[in-house]
Structure formats: structure tokens, C-alpha cells
Amino acid sequence: MDDRQIRRELRLLKGYALITTALLATLTLTAFRGPPRQKFTEIDVQRINVVEPDGRYRMVISNRPRSIGPIYKGKPFGYAGGTRPGIIFFNDEGTENGGLTFTGQRNPDGTYRASTHMSFDQFNEDQVLNLDYADNNGRRQTGFSVDDRFDVDIHDLVVQRDSIGRIADTVARAAALGRLFAPRNGVPGVARRVFLGRDPAKEALLSLSDRNGKARIRLVVDSLGTPSLEFFDAAGAVTARLPEAKK
Predict the structure, then answer these.
(1) In Å, how far are 98, 175, 221, 234 from 119, measured between CA atoms?
(2) Hey, which bits of the chain come out as E strands?
(3) C-alpha distances in angstroms, 229 versus 35, 141, 202, 213, 221?
(4) SS3 for 237?
């Protein structure tokens, strides 16, 4: 082997060594940096699922047709999806625990309906903290509310309700539903305790209710700007009013 051949092979070996070193360095950097992040300037999508490493839902963002139905510990129940465009939240167990939904549409006759609803659920139950806007062709209510609910697992409640719904006898079915949603340990199925907002009568209103959902204090500024404060007994009768009614 002459000197020229030796030099040529040495050059090849050096080139191979440089390429190999560069590849190893690239692989090492990639391993430490993790998978590359995707960046988008704009994206059109019908649904996004945010999930935990084990696949449990944490949040679903979707249009109406691809919206998700109720989920309890990772399993569907209650009714099918396709009715709730917006965002649905899930707790650590993969159970729905609130969301944000919205609608708005003008009807062929020119009237319209619109709504926005954001709620947070009691653990393994339904909503207890709500922010709502509801508009039926100009008849509007906008407000914040707090509810009480009895401590009954929503999955068990829905299973029992659906079973009762299959009773053919309408009288027996109604009686069974009444028993199912009757107060338990003195606590009704659901009772609105606080409402703060604007009602359809155009009143600015703060209403505080007892555990049965009966208003006990109402602080109002009516549509004409007249303020009042009223106190009620458990039967709904006014016990005191400020300013006092003129005789």
C-alpha cells in the first residue's frame, strides 16, 4: 500500500469519525430535550381532549356534534353527547365536575334565544356554583347563583331515575320519581340558596334563601330605580320591609 492510498483511507476514517460524532451529539441533545413541541399559527379543530397520562379526561373542548356526554369515573352514563358545545371539566377520577357552554340563534320568525352557562359541580353530583345568561328574545336573566344539593351520588341517582322512567304506569312512575327526589335528612334534592343578578323583571336583585330554597331576604332595586329590602318567613309571608309600606 503506497502513501497516497494510506492518506486517502485516513481521510475517509477522519470523515467517518466526524460524521459519527455529530450524529451522536445530535441524538444526545435530542434525548435530553425531549420530543419537539409543535407550534401552530392557526388551527381548525372540532374537538380537543386534554387527558392525563393514563388517558383519563381532564378537559374536553368541542363543537356541538362532537361534544361529550356525561362521564362518571371514565365511563359514559345518562345520555349521549352531541348537545353541549363548549368546555367540560373533569376531576381527578375522570368524573365530570363542571363546564362552560353557550348558544345563540335567531329563529325563522325573527325571534332569538341565547345563553351562556358556566358551572362547577358538587363532588360526584351536579352543579352548585353557576354563572348564567339566558335571553329569550329580550326577556333576560343574568346572574350568579349558589345551590345546595343532598349528598347522593349522581351516577346512582341517574340509574334509579332511568329505571323508574321505564315504569309503564304513569301514576306509579310519578310517585316513584317523587320519592327519589324527595328531601333526605331534611335536605332537598336541590335548593337555590343565593342569587345575585338581574332578573326578567329588570330588577337588580340579591336573594338569600333557606335550605329548602324559599326566599328569606330580598334586596332589590326595581326597573324604576326604587330600592327595597324584604324579610320573609318560612311560608313566604313578608315579616318586615324597608322602607315600610305607606299606609
Answers:
(1) 5, 30, 26, 28
(2) 47-51, 57-62, 71-72, 75-76, 86-90, 96-106, 112-121, 127-136, 139-149, 190-198, 204-209, 215-221, 227-232, 238-242
(3) 62, 20, 16, 18, 9
(4) coil
Closest to 190 measured CA to CA, from 212, 158, 165: 212
Q: Where are the alpha helices (DSSP H) in the chain?
A: 3-33, 154-165, 170-180
> How many CB atoms within 10 Å of residue 230?
16
Total-model pTM: 0.79
| Amino acid sitting at position 154 | I
Whether 124 and 153 have beta carbons less than 8 Å apart is answered as yes
| Cα–chain center distance at 204 | 26
Using CA atoms, how far apart are residues 152 and 24, in angstroms rounded to an integer? Answer: 59
> What are the pLDDT digits (tens) for 54-103?
999 999 999 999 999 999 999 998 889 999 999 999 999 999 999 999 99
Confidence of residue 24 (pLDDT cuts 50, 70, 90): low
**Kind of pairing, strands 75-76 and 47-51?**
unpaired
Looking at residue 88, its amino acid is I
Q: At what angle do helices 154-165 and 170-180 cross, to 10 degrees?
A: 170
Longest dimension (CA), the chain: 127
Q: Are 205 and 195 in contact (CB under 8 A)?
A: yes
**Cα 162 → chain centroid:** 23
pLDDT digit string (tens) for 104-146?
999 999 999 999 999 999 999 999 999 999 999 999 999 999 9
